[in-house]
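Recall the central idea of this unit: under ordinary conditions, the amino acid sequence of a chain determines the structure it adopts. In this exercise we apply that idea directly, starting from the sequence alone.
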Amino acid sequence: MLTGKQKRLLRSKAHHLDPIFQVGKGGVNENMVKQIADALEARELLKVSVLQNCDEDKNVVAQQLADGAGAELVQIIGNTIVLYKESVENKQITLP
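Accordingly, the structure predicted from this sequence is:
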Protein backbone atom coordinates (compact mmCIF):
# COMPACT_ATOMS: atom_id res chain seq x y z
CA MET A 1 0.00 0.00 0.00
CA LEU A 2 1.05 3.56 -0.70
CA THR A 3 1.53 6.03 2.14
CA GLY A 4 -0.01 9.51 2.06
CA LYS A 5 3.39 11.00 1.30
CA GLN A 6 3.90 8.65 -1.64
CA LYS A 7 0.42 9.37 -2.99
CA ARG A 8 1.09 13.13 -2.81
CA LEU A 9 4.28 12.70 -4.84
CA LEU A 10 2.50 10.54 -7.43
CA ARG A 11 -0.42 12.98 -7.68
CA SER A 12 1.99 15.85 -8.37
CA LYS A 13 3.77 13.77 -11.04
CA ALA A 14 0.45 12.72 -12.61
CA HIS A 15 -0.91 16.27 -12.72
CA HIS A 16 0.51 17.11 -16.16
CA LEU A 17 -0.25 13.70 -17.73
CA ASP A 18 -3.07 13.20 -20.21
CA PRO A 19 -5.35 10.15 -19.94
CA ILE A 20 -4.15 7.46 -22.37
CA PHE A 21 -7.05 5.04 -21.88
CA GLN A 22 -10.79 5.53 -21.87
CA VAL A 23 -13.42 3.32 -20.26
CA GLY A 24 -16.70 3.66 -22.12
CA LYS A 25 -19.96 1.83 -22.64
CA GLY A 26 -18.31 -1.60 -22.70
CA GLY A 27 -16.83 -1.15 -19.23
CA VAL A 28 -13.64 -2.94 -18.22
CA ASN A 29 -12.55 -5.99 -20.23
CA GLU A 30 -9.54 -8.33 -20.14
CA ASN A 31 -7.91 -6.77 -23.20
CA MET A 32 -8.06 -3.29 -21.67
CA VAL A 33 -6.61 -4.54 -18.36
CA LYS A 34 -3.74 -6.21 -20.25
CA GLN A 35 -3.01 -3.04 -22.24
CA ILE A 36 -3.06 -0.94 -19.07
CA ALA A 37 -0.73 -3.41 -17.32
CA ASP A 38 1.69 -3.17 -20.28
CA ALA A 39 1.49 0.63 -20.29
CA LEU A 40 2.13 0.72 -16.53
CA GLU A 41 5.24 -1.40 -17.03
CA ALA A 42 6.49 1.17 -19.54
CA ARG A 43 5.40 4.34 -17.70
CA GLU A 44 4.70 3.41 -14.05
CA LEU A 45 2.10 6.19 -13.73
CA LEU A 46 -0.91 6.82 -15.97
CA LYS A 47 -4.37 8.28 -16.15
CA VAL A 48 -7.53 6.55 -17.33
CA SER A 49 -10.59 8.54 -18.30
CA VAL A 50 -14.08 7.21 -17.48
CA LEU A 51 -16.47 8.41 -20.16
CA GLN A 52 -20.01 9.68 -19.51
CA ASN A 53 -21.57 6.64 -21.23
CA CYS A 54 -19.84 4.12 -18.95
CA ASP A 55 -22.50 2.03 -17.19
CA GLU A 56 -20.41 1.23 -14.11
CA ASP A 57 -19.50 3.48 -11.20
CA LYS A 58 -16.05 5.06 -11.57
CA ASN A 59 -14.99 3.69 -8.17
CA VAL A 60 -15.83 0.16 -9.31
CA VAL A 61 -13.99 0.71 -12.61
CA ALA A 62 -10.94 2.04 -10.74
CA GLN A 63 -10.86 -0.98 -8.43
CA GLN A 64 -11.26 -3.44 -11.33
CA LEU A 65 -8.39 -1.80 -13.25
CA ALA A 66 -6.12 -1.62 -10.21
CA ASP A 67 -6.79 -5.24 -9.21
CA GLY A 68 -6.57 -6.55 -12.78
CA ALA A 69 -3.30 -4.78 -13.57
CA GLY A 70 -1.83 -5.35 -10.11
CA ALA A 71 -1.54 -1.58 -9.68
CA GLU A 72 -2.10 0.90 -6.88
CA LEU A 73 -5.00 3.34 -7.12
CA VAL A 74 -3.46 6.76 -6.48
CA GLN A 75 -6.60 8.86 -6.84
CA ILE A 76 -9.92 9.39 -8.59
CA ILE A 77 -10.43 12.99 -9.55
CA GLY A 78 -13.59 13.83 -11.46
CA ASN A 79 -13.88 11.10 -14.09
CA THR A 80 -10.13 10.47 -14.20
CA ILE A 81 -8.39 7.57 -12.47
CA VAL A 82 -4.67 7.74 -11.64
CA LEU A 83 -2.89 4.38 -11.41
CA TYR A 84 0.67 3.54 -10.33
CA LYS A 85 2.66 0.35 -10.55
CA GLU A 86 6.38 0.06 -9.95
CA SER A 87 8.08 -0.99 -13.15
CA VAL A 88 10.43 -3.98 -13.17
CA GLU A 89 12.60 -2.83 -16.09
CA ASN A 90 11.88 0.89 -16.57
CA LYS A 91 11.95 2.24 -13.02
CA GLN A 92 11.71 6.05 -13.22
CA ILE A 93 9.89 7.10 -10.05
CA THR A 94 11.58 6.77 -6.65
CA LEU A 95 9.07 6.84 -3.81
CA PRO A 96 9.98 8.42 -0.45
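The two ends are 13 Å apart (CA to CA).
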